[in-house]
Amino acid sequence: MKSIDLSRFKAVFFDMDGVLYDSMPNHEYTWTKAFAAHGITINEEDAYINEGRTGRGTICLVYNKLYGRDATDEEVDSIYGLKTKLMKECKTAPQMEGMRRLVDALREKGMKTYVVTGSKQPTLMEKLWSEYGFDKEHIVSGADVVKGKPDPEPYLIALKRSGERAEDCAVVENAPMGVKSAKAAEIYTIAVNTGKLADHYLTDEGCDLLYPSTAKLSDEWIKAL
Question: 0.85 cut: is pTM over it?
Answer without folding.
Answer: yes
